[in-house]
Design brief:
245 residues; mainly alpha; globular
Length: 245
Amino acid sequence: MLWAWVRIAGAVAAASGFIAGLIVNVARARRFGEDLGAVLANYLSFLTIFTTLLVVIVLIVAAVWSLRHPGTSPEPFAIALSMAVVTAPTLLVGAVYNLLLRGLPSEAALTDPPFIFACDRYAIEVLHVVLPLFLVIDLLFAPRRRGLPWWSLTVLVGYPLVWTIYTMVRGELVANPDGSAPWWYPYPFLDPHGDGGYGSVMLYIGGITVAFVVIGSLIIAIGRFRHRRALRRAGAAAAVDATAA
């Protein structure tokens, strides 16, 4: 029961990071005279941002189910799978940001007013530090976690691959809101107009896919281990009760 409220708190934190980032993007669009609709569509097209919205929804659904179904039975398969699906990209994005991108200057941030600058820093830390850590803690310690079959890995890897296809198709159909190019990609390594062209993009996609396979496998393995351990403990407790009776 307590963990349901922990998950609600996590959902609130994730939502606050999303809203802070939204405020930043709206403010910058107005300051630079960019099309607000295009800016917002691009904001929602980042894997980090879209996944954060899914995290909010999944955590709330999981918490409500737990509150309505108290006990020790494992959570439904759909909730367990959804938690795994949103955990994998959140962990990967958090790792990439903190290992490779932290500290890199942002030209837009240099001209932000103090409040917008603070919102930007808040969104970055919540989405790339707080939320990944929260989902790791949930993976390791949340009660009633259900073990997933190994075929679930196809779903965990499939989600970012579908997003990648969407991104590559959309990138050539929309222009950069700042007018610098007739295309727009959320991440530079996915932009085929760079020096490496599509060959470089495919290498990055291949590497990211491997990373998702590794992270997804770890998530499933941990969930299966915790589920089996919970079943053994429940069986031992039942045996003790039967002996006492």
